[in-house]
Design goal:
The protein is α+β, with helices and mostly antiparallel strands. It is built from ten helices and 14 strands. The strands form three sheets. The protein has a seven-stranded mixed β-sheet with strand order 1-2-3-4-5-7-6. A five-stranded mixed β-sheet has the order 12-11-10-14-13. α1 runs antiparallel to α3 and α8 runs antiparallel to α9. The protein starts with about 25 loop residues before the first strand and ends in a 10-residue tail after the last strand.
Length: about 325
């Protein structure tokens, strides 16, 4: 357990830079997405290492022809879960497919927008895929099968912590276990974001809460708790957002005052945001001066922690 004393990290300016890789995975697939996917799969640079690209392209074409509905998510999720990968500007740049068989899950990942190659978006996409596979789908092992000549993918999966499991002249199989993922997450080896701090009391109660709640924000909350540096209530810095804190935020161009509360106390009209909401899960553990990119209401927002107005630990208002 890492312990931080009062006064750690003075006020910091924005820690998120606009050129820092950022990816969010979204489950909704529209007809427009399907047409974009077909364009990607017609590019030989994209498909040269995809063993089933022709079958995928044929499936997409059939899905478009089968229905006139604008949303095709249910068709793409047959036999697995399909996600579009968006960058910070909410532009689709690739896709991820997760197929769970028993306790294991296989990941297929493609950055289809070749103009974005070389920007480390693949690594960010792998991190998001692991988050879903292990914390949402509860896989015990995540497997990636890669062509031996696909040097870019081989390097990216290795740097993400995957280990070579088997290899043939035509295929290399890499794996990541749930236990290894959690260990690397706690060590900060599979995240690309600022350290966050959570009190022992908050973490214990929030871990119990996660067992009862569901939804994308809860997956994000569990991810944040697993990677957080745990501190005693008396040792947390005064400028950290803890449970029942009030903080002044900058949400893109909008300034707003929020209180971070448990679900039973939530009232967004009064500025009380549940820790299981998008905003609530996003700000837990960050400090004044931090800025983060987070997907809220189906679009990426920039959240800045302007000031912590009240923190129960600083006021001595906590219970052991």
């Amino acid at each position: 357990m890492a312990i931080a004393m009062k006064g750690f990290h003075p006020l910091r300016m924005s820690v998120v830079k606009m050129n820092k890789p950022f990816i969010s995975l979204c489950p909704e697939i529209t007809r427009t997405h399907a047409l974009t996917l077909m364009d990607w799969l017609e590019d030989e640079r994209v498909t040269c290492y995809l063993s089933d690209s022709r079958n995928v392209s044929r499936f997409i074409e059939q899905a478009i022809d089968r229905t006139q509905l604008p949303i095709l998510t249910h068709l793409f999720n047959q036999g697995g879960r399909f996600f579009m990968a968006y960058d910070r500007r909410d532009v689709p740049v690739g896709f991820v497919r997760l197929v769970k068989t028993g306790p294991d899950c296989e990941i297929v990942l493609v950055i289809g927008d070749c103009d974005n190659w070389g920007r480390n978006l693949g690594a960010s996409t792998i991190r998001e895929g692991m988050k879903l596979a292990f914390l949402d789908m509860r896989a015990e092992k995540l497997i990636a099968k890669i062509h031996p000549d696909n040097a870019r993918s081989l390097k990216t999966f290795l740097r993400s912590g995957f280990l070579l499991e088997t290899e043939t002249p035509t295929l290399k199989s890499f794996s990541m276990t749930a236990g290894r993922y959690l260990r690397l997450l706690r060590e900060g080896a599979v995240v690309d974001s600022t350290d966050i701090y959570v009190t022992e009391i908050d973490k214990a109660r929030l871990k119990e809460l996660i067992e009862l709640e569901q939804g994308p924000a809860v997956v994000e909350l569990e991810h944040e708790l697993e990677r957080a540096i745990v501190v005693a209530p008396q040792q947390v810095a005064r400028n950290v957002v803890t449970m029942n804190s009030r903080a002044l935020l900058q949400l893109d161009d909008e300034e707003m005052e929020v209180a971070l509360v448990y679900p039973e106390d939530a009232d967004s009209s009064a500025g009380k945001f549940s820790v299981c909401s998008d905003v609530g899960a996003a700000i837990l553990g960050y400090q004044e001066g931090d800025s983060i990119d987070w997907r809220i209401s189906d679009r990426t927002r920039r959240i800045g922690i302007r000031k912590v107005l009240y923190q129960p630990e600083a006021a001595g208002d906590f219970h052991l």
